[in-house]
C-alpha cells in the first residue's frame, strides 16, 4: 500500500528519476552483507556493490539511523533493501525501475492529499540522474481521484468519476480544457460551438436531463456544476452583446483557466459521486484541480508554442458560371425576361465573368497564435510553491487583426507543520482575457454571397460599393465586438488534526469576475452614399459590464477509524455561498467623430440600460460515511440538505442522498493466484441529485423597471414574468452498475458501466401561446425524462518493454434518451415538440416524397388527406437528432526519444443539414454544388425543385421536411502530437528539452451535408484546423 | 480518547443544528434593484402611471399601432407599397406577394406583440382594481386608458384575423387554453367595453401634446366599431361630437398635418427618447439607390392627379439612372426630431368616416362637405351634389387611400369595412377572396388547440 501511494504520488507529481541504462530492478538478484553501520553507508555500499544506478534517497533520512546488520544471498533488490532497513522508519520501493528509499508513512488518511502528506523532499535530486517528466510505463492502479469533498483511490471508489490529467492536455493548441477533453471521457459529450476564439462549449454529461434549454427557457438547464479548487464558478456567461459574434452569445467560464495550469480534470457522473453536491449535481460536476508546487530543487519550466489555424469546410460552392446559369434559369422559370433593376448579378451591373471564392476572401486567412508559459516551482519539506505565468494570443481567420489575448498568473503555496498535524494550501488564479472579434460573424455571408459580386476594395484601398449596388461585407470589419474579462479566484484550504484520526478542515474561497464588453458599430460599416453611412451621427457604441463576487465557506470534520478488518471514514460539513452580481449597460448613438466612439459621454443620444444587482444565497449540510470491510467490501453513503434563495418560501429546502457499494472480487480467494486477473471490481450506486439552475428571483411576482421603455420621460414598469408561486426543485434519480477488470498485471484494463437516470418534476420554461402575454412561464412540469446508457472503456499497454512502447485507450458511450411520461402532453404546449417514448431532441417534419413528375414541384405527404400540407397533422415524420454513440480512441507511441500520440473522436448522429438553413434556391444567394441537381423533365431524378427568382413557398415546407435531416456522423483526428526529447549531455544546463508538433482537427471523415458536422451551424465559423509547433525547456 | 471524539461530534452536531435554524435567514435576499412587487406598483400613483408608461412605450415600439407595423405590413399586403428586397426570411416578401402562410415570421411577431400589450393592459386593469390608496378619479382614468388601449388592440386583431381569442385576465392557466370569440361577438364586446371607457375618460387631454388618449379618442374607436356593425346612426352621433368639439380644428396647411402641435390631432404616440425619429421615417427612408425594402407602388403614385398636394408634400422621388422610385414622406425628420410624433388618429379620419356614415344613410349632400374638406386641402377638384351613394362611397375609398397611405393599416381596414378588398385583385395578381383575414400563426394553433381551426383557405 505504501509503495502504491508513492507510485501514485510520483505519477501525480509527474517527476521521477530514470537511469538511461536498461536494468530491470524487479528482476535482478543481488548479494550483500553488512554489519551495524550507518544506514547511509549501508545503502551506499549496497548500491555500489550491486551496480544499481537508478535510485533515489535523502541523506537526511538515512544518516540519522544505524542498521542492525544483515545478509542477503541472491535476493530481489527490494527484498534485500528492506532487509537492510529492517526496524527503521524507512522503506524501500521500486517505481519506474528506480529504487526509492523514503520515510515510512504510518497512516495515510483518506482525506489527505497524498502529495501534501509525503513531501517530495524525501527524494533527493541526484544531479547525475537525468530528470524528466513522468513516463507512464505501466498503468498505476492507485490513481487517486478527486471527488470534491474527499479523495478516493481509483481502486476503492464506489462512484463513477472520469479523469484526465495534465499529461493528456498539456501543450495542446487550445484555449479551453474542454477542447482537449473531447473524445477522452466516456459519457461526456463535448461540442465546441464555433471556431471563433473565446466562445462557448456544449457539455452534456450522460445525456439531457432537463427539458430546459436556452430556446425554451432562456437558461440551459443541463449545465454541469463547475468547481475550481473547491470554489464553484458560474456556468453562465453574462454577455449581452456577444450574440452576433459568438454562437449563442455564449462564453465558457473555463476560458479563464489556462489548460497548462490544470493538474487534473475530473467529472463526477453517478449518484454516488454527485449526491454530495445535492441540488447542483444532477447534470454532473466538473472538478478542476490546478497544479501544485513541488519541493526539492528549484524547477523552472518554459514552454513556447506557435500555431496557425484555418477554417474547416465541408461544402463545395457553385462557381460563377454555375451560379449565373442558376440565376438565369430562375428568372426564366418565373417567366421574367427583363431582369429587375436590383438583380445586379445578372442584369449587367456586375461583371458576369468575375469569380471570387468568398470563403477564401472572408474567412480564409490563416489565424496565427502564440502561447508562452513560464513556471517556477520549489520548496522544502514543509513548504512548497508554484508560480506560473501564461500569455496567449490568437488571431482570427478574417483579414483584419482581430485578436484573442489571455494572460494567466497562477500561484500555489502549500505548507505543513513539522509534526504534519496542520496543513495549509493557498491557491490563486488570476486571469485576464481580452477578445476582439468581428461584430457579426461573416461565415454566412462567405457562403451565400454571389460569386460574381464585385471586388472588395478599389485599387486605392478604399471600400468598393460598386455604385451603391453592393453591400460590401468587409465594411463589417469596421465594427467590432470586444470583451475584457478579469477573473480572480482564491482558495484557502486548511486542515488540522484535532485528535488522532479526527481532523477539522476548512475550505473557503472567493471568486471575483469583472466582465466588460463593447459593441462598436461606427457609421463606416454602412455605405457612405446612404444616410446611415454618411456621418458619425449614425455611429453606435454599446458597453456592458458586470461585476460578480462570490464566496464560499465550507467547514468540515473528518474522522477515520479502523479496527481489525473494519474501516470507517466519516465526513460532515456545511456550505454557505453567496453570489452578488452587479451589471449595467449604456449605449451611445451619434458622435461628432468616430474617434470619440468609445467615450459614450460624447454621444448625442445616450441610452442607459438597467443597473441591476442580484443576489444568490445558498446553504447546505452534507455528509459521507464510507465503510470498508476487509478492504474488499465497500459501502459509501452520502447526503446533502440544500437551501437556495432561488425558491419561494414553501420550497426553499430539499434533501438529496445516495448509496454506493463496491466489491473487489479479485481479492476473493479463488482469484488470489489468478494469472490473468489482477484486479476486479463490481460496483453500483443509487441516489438523487438536483438542479437549481433556473436563474435568480424566478418565483417573484414583480414589475421590472425597464430603461428602454420610456414614454414621455417616464420610465416604464413592465410585468417581469408570469407569476408562478409553486416553484420547486427538480430531481434526478440516478442508478449505476459497473464492472472493472484489470487483466494481465493490469496491462489491459476494462470498464463497463450501465447507468439509468430519471429526472422528474421538470422545471421548464413552459411554452405558452402568445395570447397569454408571454411566450413562456417557468413551471414544474410533471414529466419524466430518462437517460440510460452503456459506457465501455478499455486501455491497454500492448508493448511495454524495449525502446518501443505503445499504450492505447478506447471509450465508447451509447446514450439513450427517452421521454417517459408527460401527463397531459397532448393538450399541452409541448404536444408537437415531444412524443412519449421518444428522445427529447426529436423533431417533427413533413415527409418529402419527391418531385411531382408533371408539375415539377415538391410533393409532401398529406397525411390527413385534406388536400393541403399543413402543420400539426401533416408533420408526421419524427427524426431523432440525439447522438447514437460517441467516443474516442487514443494511442501513445514511444520510440527512444520520440513520442507520438493520436486521438480520434467519433460521433454517430443524425443532424439538420444545409437544406434547413439555405435560402430559397434561385435567389441572389450562392449555393452548394449539390443544388445543381435540379429536377427537370430531362433530369427526372433531380433532387431539388426548379429554381425560382422569387421566394418559393414550397421551399419553406421543404425546410421543415425530412430532407433537412441526414447523417451527421463524423470521425475526426482530434489531436496529433509528435515530440522529440533532445538528448542532453550530463553537464547540460537543462534537465530536459523537448520540441513538438501538435495538430488539432487535422482530418475529418463525414458524409454530412453542411459546413461542419460538429457545430452543425451555417451561420458561425466552425472549429478550426490547427497546426502548432513548440519547444519546452525544463531547467 | 473516545470521549473527546464524542464531544467533538456533539459540538459539531449542535453547531449544525444552530445553523439549520438560522439557515432560513441566511437564504433571504432582497428583491433586485430593478424590480418591485406587483401589489406595490398599484399602491402609488407614480408607479401605477409608470406601468401605464410601459404600455404606451410598448405601443410606440412594437404593437399594431407602432409606426412600422400595420402601416408597413398592411400597406404591402394591399396595394400601397412594393417590396424590393431580393431575398429575405422575415416574411415580408410573402406579405407583398400575397403568398402568406401560417408560419410567416412578421405576422407571428405582430400577433405576439399585440397580445403582449393586451396582457399589460389586463395587468393594469386588475392591479388598479385592487388598489386601495390611489384616488378614485385617478383609478378611473387609469382603468379607462388601459381598457381603451385593450379595445383598440382587439379591434386590430379582429380586423386582421377574424375570430380571435379575447383574454380579459392575466391568468395564464385560463388564457393558455382560451377559445376564439366569433368576430361579431368581438365587436359586441368592444362596444360594451368602449361604452364603459367613455365616461371614465375626460375630454381634456392630460398632456398638451395629445400623447395620451382622451374621451374623444375612445369615441372615435367606438364609432369605427359601430360602422362595422352598420350602426350608422350611432356612429354619426359620435363622429359629429368629435368634429364639433372645440378641441379640434381642421388643419388647412397640408405641410403641417404631421406636425405634433396641430389641433387636428386626436391621439399621437411620442417616440421613446427626445430627438428620436418616428418609426415611420426610419422604415420608409431610402435615398441615392434602388430601394432595398419598400417604396410606394406605381399604382398608388399614378393614382394621384398632377395637382394633388399630397403627392407633392407627402411623397419623395428617388432617381437612380433611368429608374425613379417614390417613398412615403409624411414624416421627415431622420434625426433631431422635435416636431413629429406618430399620429394614430387625426381629425381627417373623423371627417371621412362621417362622410361614409352619412353616405350610407343616403345623406349625400351632408356627406359631400366632409369629403370636400379633405379634397380642398389637397388642391384637387371638389365633388358636386349630383353624385349617387355608390359613387360617393367609392370616392371616399379613393380619398382614404390618398389621404392615409402607409398610415396605421388604413387601406386594409377601410377596404375591408366597405367590403371592397376584392378590388385589390386588379392590382395584386395573387389576391384571393379568403385574404380578408390572415392566417392565425401556426405556433399558436400548435400551442393552444382550442383556437383551431385555422382560418379557412390557409
Automatic annotation (TrEMBL), chain A:
It is found in: Cell outer membrane. SUPFAM superfamilies: Porins. It is a multi-pass membrane protein. PROSITE patterns: TONB_DEPENDENT_REC_3. InterPro entries: Beta-barrel_TonB, Beta-barrel_TonB_sf, Plug_dom, Plug_dom_sf, TonB-dep_OMP_SusC/RagA, TonB-dep_OMP_SusC/RagA_CS, TonB-dep_rcpt-like. GO terms for cellular component: cell outer membrane. Residues 155-285 form the TonB-dependent receptor plug domain. Its main location: membrane. The lineage of its organism: Bacteria, Pseudomonadati, Bacteroidota, Sphingobacteriia, Sphingobacteriales. The keyword Transmembrane applies. Pfam families: Plug, TonB_dep_Rec_b-barrel. Keywords: Cell outer membrane, Membrane, TonB box, Transmembrane, Transmembrane beta strand, Transport. Belongs to the TonB-dependent receptor family. Gene3D superfamilies: TonB-dependent receptor, beta-barrel domain, TonB-dependent receptor, plug domain. It comes from Pedobacter alluvionis. Residues 455-1002 form the TonB-dependent receptor-like beta-barrel domain. This is SusC/RagA family TonB-linked outer membrane protein.
UniProtKB/TrEMBL annotation, chain B:
It is found in: Cell outer membrane. InterPro entries: SusD-like_N (IPR033985), SusD_RagB_dom (IPR012944), TPR-like_helical_dom_sf (IPR011990). Keywords: Cell outer membrane, Membrane, Signal. The keyword Signal applies. The keyword Signal applies. It holds the Pfam family SusD-like_3. Residues 50-227 form the SusD-like N-terminal domain. Residues 320-458 form the RagB/SusD domain. GO terms for cellular component: cell outer membrane. Belongs to the SusD family. This is RagB/SusD family nutrient uptake outer membrane protein.
Amino acid at each position: 500500500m505504501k509503495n502504491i501511494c508513492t507510485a501514485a504520488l510520483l505519477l501525480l507529481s509527474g517527476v521521477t528519476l530514470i537511469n538511461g541504462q536498461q536494468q530491470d530492478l524487479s528482476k535482478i538478484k543481488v548479494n550483500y552483507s553488512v554489519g551495524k553501520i550507518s544506514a547511509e553507508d549501508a545503502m551506499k555500499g549496497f548500491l555500489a556493490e550491486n551496480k544499481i544506478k537508478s535510485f533515489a534517497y535523502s541523506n537526511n533520512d538515512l544518516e540519522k539511523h544505524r542498521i542492525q546488520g544483515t545478509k542477503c544471498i541472491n535476493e530481489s533488490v527490494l527484498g534485500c533493501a528492506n532487509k537492510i532497513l529492517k526496524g527503521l522508519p524507512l522503506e524501500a520501493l521500486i517505481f519506474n525501475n528506480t529504487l526509492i528509499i523514503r520515510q515510512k508513512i504510518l497512516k495515510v488518511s483518506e482525506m489527505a492529499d497524498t502529495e501534501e502528506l509525503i513531501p517530495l523532499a524525501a527524494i533527493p535530486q541526484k544531479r547525475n540522474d537525468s530528470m524528466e517528466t513522468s513516463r507512464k510505463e505501466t498503468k498505476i492502479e492507485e490513481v487517486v481521484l478527486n471527488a470534491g469533498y474527499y479523495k478516493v483511490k481509483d481502486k476503492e471508489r464506489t462512484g463513477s468519476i472520469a479523469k484526465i490529467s495534465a499529461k493528456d492536455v498539456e501543450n495542446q493548441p487550445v484555449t479551453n480544457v474542454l477542447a482537449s477533453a473531447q473524445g477522452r471521457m466516456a459519457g461526456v459529450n463535448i461540442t465546441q460551438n464555433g471556431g471563433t476564439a473565446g466562445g462557448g462549449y456544449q457539455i452534456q454529461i450522460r445525456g439531457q436531463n432537463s427539458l430546459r434549454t436556452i430556446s425554451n427557457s432562456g437558461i440551459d438547464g443541463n449545465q454541469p456544476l463547475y468547481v475550481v479548487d473547491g470554489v464553484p464558478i458560474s456556468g453562465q456567461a453574462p454577455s449581452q452583446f456577444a450574440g452576433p459574434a459568438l454562437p449563442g452569445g455564449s462564453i465558457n467560464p473555463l476560458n479563464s483557466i489556462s489548460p497548462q495550469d490544470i493538474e487534473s480534470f475530473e467529472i463526477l457522473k453517478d449518484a454516488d459521486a454527485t449526491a454530495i453536491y445535492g441540488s447542483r449535481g444532477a447534470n454532473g460536476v466538473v472538478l478542476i484541480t490546478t497544479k501544485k508546487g513541488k519541493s526539492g530543487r528549484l524547477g523552472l519550466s518554459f514552454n513556447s508554442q506557435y500555431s496557425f489555424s484555418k477554417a474547416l469546410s465541408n461544402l463545395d460552392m457553385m462557381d460563377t458560371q454555375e451560379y449565373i446559369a442558376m440565376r438565369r434559369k430562375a428568372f426564366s422559370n418565373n417567366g421574367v425576361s427583363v431582369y429587375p433593376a436590383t438583380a445586379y448579378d445578372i442584369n449587367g451591373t456586375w461583371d458576369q465573368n468575375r469569380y471570387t471564392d468568398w470563403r477564401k476572401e472572408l474567412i480564409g486567412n490563416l489565424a496565427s497564435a502564440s502561447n508562452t508559459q513560464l513556471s517556477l516551482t520549489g520548496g522544502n519539506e514543509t513548504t512548497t510553491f508554484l508560480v506560473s505565468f501564461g500569455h496567449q494570443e490568437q488571431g482570427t481567420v478574417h483579414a483584419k487583426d482581430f485578436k484573442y489575448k489571455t494572460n494567466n498568473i497562477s500561484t500555489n503555496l502549500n505548507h505543513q507543520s513539522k509534526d504534519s498535524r496542520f496543513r495549509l494550501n493557498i491557491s490563486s488564479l488570476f486571469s485576464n482575457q481580452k477578445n476582439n472579434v468581428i461584430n457579426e460573424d461573416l461565415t454566412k455571408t462567405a457562403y451565400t454571397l454571389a460569386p460574381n459580386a464585385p471586388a472588395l476594395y478599389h485599387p486605392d484601398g478604399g471600400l468598393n460599393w460598386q455604385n451603391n449596388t453592393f453591400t460590401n461585407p468587409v465594411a463589417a470589419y469596421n465594427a467590432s465586438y470586444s470583451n475584457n474579462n478579469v477573473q480572480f479566484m482564491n482558495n484557502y484550504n486548511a486542515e488540522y488534526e484535532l485528535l488522532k484520526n479526527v481532523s477539522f478542515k476548512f475550505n473557503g474561497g472567493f471568486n471575483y469576475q469583472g466582465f466588460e464588453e463593447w459593441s462598436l458599430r461606427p457609421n463606416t460599416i454602412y455605405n457612405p452614399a446612404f444616410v446611415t453611412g454618411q456621418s458619425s451621427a449614425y455611429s453606435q457604441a454599446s458597453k456592458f459590464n458586470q461585476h460578480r463576487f462570490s464566496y464560499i465557506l465550507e467547514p468540515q470534520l473528518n474522522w477515520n477509524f479502523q479496527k481489525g478488518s473494519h474501516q470507517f471514514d466519516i465526513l460532515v460539513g456545511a456550505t454557505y455561498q453567496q453570489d452578488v452580481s452587479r451589471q449595467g449597460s449604456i449605449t451611445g448613438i451619434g458622435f461628432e467623430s468616430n474617434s470619440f466612439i468609445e467615450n459614450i459621454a460624447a454621444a448625442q443620444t445616450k441610452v442607459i440600460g438597467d443597473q441591476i444587482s442580484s443576489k444568490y444565497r445558498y446553504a447546505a449540510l452534507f455528509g459521507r460515511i464510507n465503510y470498508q470491510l476487509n478492504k474488499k467490501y465497500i459501502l459509501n453513503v452520502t447526503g446533502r440538505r440544500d437551501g437556495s434563495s432561488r425558491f419561494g418560501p414553501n420550497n426553499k429546502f430539499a434533501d438529496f442522498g445516495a448509496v454506493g457499494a463496491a466489491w473487489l472480487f479479485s481479492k476473493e480467494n479463488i482469484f488470489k493466484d489468478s494469472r490473468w486477473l489482477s484486479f476486479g471490481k463490481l460496483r453500483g450506486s443509487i441516489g438523487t441529485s438536483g438542479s437549481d439552475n433556473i436563474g435568480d428571483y424566478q418565483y417573484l411576482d414583480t414589475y421590472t423597471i425597464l430603461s428602454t421603455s420610456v414614454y414621455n420621460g417616464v420610465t416604464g414598469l413592465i410585468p417581469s414574468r408570469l407569476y408562478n408561486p409553486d416553484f420547486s426543485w427538480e430531481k434526478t434519480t440516478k442508478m449505476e452498475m459497473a464492472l472493472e477488470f484489470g487483466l494481465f498485471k493490469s496491462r489491459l484494463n476494462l470498464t463497463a458501466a450501465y447507468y439509468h437516470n430519471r429526472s422528474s418534476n421538470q422545471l421548464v420554461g413552459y411554452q405558452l401561446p402568445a395570447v397569454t402575454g408571454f411566450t413562456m412561464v417557468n413551471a414544474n412540469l410533471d414529466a419524466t425524462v430518462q437517460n440510460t446508457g452503456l459506457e465501455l472503456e478499455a486501455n491497454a499497454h500492448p508493448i511495454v518493454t524495449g525502446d518501443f512502447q505503445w499504450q492505447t485507450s478506447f471509450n465508447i458511450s451509447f446514450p439513450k434518451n427517452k421521454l417517459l411520461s408527460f401527463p397531459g402532453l397532448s393538450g399541452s404546449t409541448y404536444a408537437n415538440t415531444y412524443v412519449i417514448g421518444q428522445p427529447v431532441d426529436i423533431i417533427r417534419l413533413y415527409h418529402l416524397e419527391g418531385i411531382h413528375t408533371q408539375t415539377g414541384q415538391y410533393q409532401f405527404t398529406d397525411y390527413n388527406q385534406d388536400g393541403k400540407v399543413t402543420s400539426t397533422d401533416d408533420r408526421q415524420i419524427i427524426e431523432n437528432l440525439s447522438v447514437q454513440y460517441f467516443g474516442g480512441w487514443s494511442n501513445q507511441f514511444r520510440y527512444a526519444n520520440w513520442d507520438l500520440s493520436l486521438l480520434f473522436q467519433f460521433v454517430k448522429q443524425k443532424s439538420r443539414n444545409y437544406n434547413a438553413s439555405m435560402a430559397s434556391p434561385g435567389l441572389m444567394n450562392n449555393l452548394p454544388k449539390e443544388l445543381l441537381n435540379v429536377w427537370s423533365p430531362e433530369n427526372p431524378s433531380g433532387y431539388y425543385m426548379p429554381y425560382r427568382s422569387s421566394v418559393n413557398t414550397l421551399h419553406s415546407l421543404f425546410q421543415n421536411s425530412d430532407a433537412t435531416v441526414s447523417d451527421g456522423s463524423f470521425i475526426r483526428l482530434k489531436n496529433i502530437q509528435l515530440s522529440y526529447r533532445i538528448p542532453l549531455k550530463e553537464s547540460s544546463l537543462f534537465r530536459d528539452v523537448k520540441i513538438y508538433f501538435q495538430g488539432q482537427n487535422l482530418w475529418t471523415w463525414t458524409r454530412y451535408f453542411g459546413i461542419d458536422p460538429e457545430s452543425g451551424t451555417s451561420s458561425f465559423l466552425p472549429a478550426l484546423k490547427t497546426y502548432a509547433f513548440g519547444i519546452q525547456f525544463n531547467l | 480518547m473516545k470521549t473527546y471524539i464524542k464531544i467533538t461530534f456533539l459540538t459539531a452536531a449542535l453547531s449544525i443544528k444552530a445553523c439549520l435554524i438560522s439557515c432560513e435567514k441566511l437564504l433571504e435576499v432582497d428583491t433586485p434593484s430593478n424590480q418591485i412587487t406587483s401589489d406595490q406598483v398599484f399602491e402609488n400613483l407614480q408607479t401605477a402611471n409608470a406601468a401605464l408608461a410601459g404600455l404606451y412605450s410598448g405601443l410606440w415600439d412594437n404593437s399594431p399601432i407602432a409606426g412600422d407595423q400595420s402601416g408597413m405590413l398592411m400597406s404591402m399586403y394591399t396595394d400601397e407599397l412594393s417590396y424590393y428586397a431580393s431575398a429575405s426570411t422575415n416574411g415580408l416578401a410573402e406579405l407583398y406577394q400575397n403568398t402568406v402562410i401560417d408560419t410567416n415570421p412578421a405576422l407571428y411577431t405582430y400577433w405576439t406583440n399585440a397580445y403582449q400589450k393586451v396582457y399589460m393592459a389586463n395587468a393594469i386593469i386588475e392591479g388598479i382594481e385592487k388598489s386601495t390608496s390611489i384616488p378614485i378619479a385617478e383609478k378611473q382614468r387609469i382603468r379607462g386608458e388601459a381598457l381603451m388601449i385593450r379595445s383598440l388592440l382587439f379591434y386590430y386583431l379582429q380586423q386582421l384575423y377574424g375570430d380571435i381569442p379575447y383574454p380579459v385576465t392575466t391568468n395564464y392557466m385560463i388564457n393558455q387554453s382560451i377559445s376564439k370569440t366569433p368576430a361579431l361577438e368581438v365587436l359586441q364586446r368592444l362596444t360594451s367595453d368602449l361604452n364603459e371607457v367613455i365616461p371614465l375618460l375626460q375630454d381634456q387631454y392630460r398632456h398638451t401634446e395629445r400623447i395620451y388618449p382622451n374621451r374623444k379618442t375612445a369615441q372615435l374607436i367606438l364609432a369605427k366599431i359601430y360602422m362595422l356593425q352598420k350602426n350608422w346612426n350611432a356612429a354619426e352621433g359620435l363622429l359629429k361630437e368629435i368634429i364639433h368639439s372645440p378641441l379640434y380644428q381642421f388643419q388647412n396647411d397640408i405641410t403641417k398635418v404631421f406636425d405634433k402641435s396641430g389641433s387636428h390631432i386626436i391621439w399621437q404616440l411620442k417616440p421613446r427618447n427626445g430627438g428620436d425619429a418616428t418609426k415611420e421615417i426610419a422604415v420608409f427612408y431610402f435615398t441615392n439607390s434602388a430601394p432595398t425594402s419598400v417604396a410606394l407602388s406605381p399604382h398608388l403614385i399614378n393614382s394621384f392627379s398632377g395637382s394633388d398636394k399630397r403627392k407633392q408634400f407627402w411623397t419623395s422621388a428617388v432617381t437612380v439612372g433611368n429608374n425613379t422610385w417614390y417613398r412615403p414622406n409624411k414624416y421627415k425628420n431622420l434625426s433631431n426630431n422635435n416636431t413629429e410624433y406618430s399620429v394614430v388618429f387625426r381629425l381627417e379620419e373623423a371627417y371621412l368616416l362621417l362622410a361614409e356614415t352619412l353616405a350610407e344613410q343616403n345623406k349625400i349632400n351632408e356627406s359631400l362637405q366632409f369629403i370636400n374638406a379633405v379634397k380642398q386641402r389637397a388642391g384637387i377638384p371638389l365633388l358636386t351634389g349630383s353624385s349617387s351613394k355608390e359613387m360617393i362611397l367609392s370616392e371616399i375609398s379613393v380619398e382614404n387611400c390618398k389621404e392615409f397611405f402607409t398610415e396605421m393599416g388604413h387601406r386594409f381596414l377601410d377596404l375591408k369595412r366597405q367590403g371592397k378588398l376584392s378590388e385589390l385583385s386588379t392590382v395584386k395578381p395573387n389576391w384571393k377572396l379568403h385574404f380578408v383575414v390572415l392566417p392565425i400563426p401556426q405556433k399558436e394553433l400548435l400551442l393552444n388547440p382550442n383556437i383551431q381551426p385555422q382560418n379557412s383557405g390557409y
